[in-house]
């Protein structure tokens, strides 16, 4: 047989151990509902709860749109700051840089789901 080529490489941290848990129907439904609200499948949700004690929910559609808009604004401000720097408009650069830092702070808060 020839060796398998291509595809996804094997995970370096393969999960080899299994832990069982018994739940009644209500408990399972509640956990599945919470996982769905967080935007995760059941096992990643449970693993997050067990290992970290909390799960950070993924952004909903509105949150993703806001995040994309903020990213676009931050990029525009960064480009303007570079132009101001190159042409010598120091005062304008200071104002743009302050706004850029505020946007970067908001983006960091929004993307803290990692």
TrEMBL record:
Highest taxon listed in the record's lineage: Bacteria
Pfam families: NikA-like
InterPro entries, alphabetized: NikA-like (IPR053842)
Protein name per the record: Plasmid mobilization relaxosome protein MobC
Organism: Chitinophaga pollutisoli
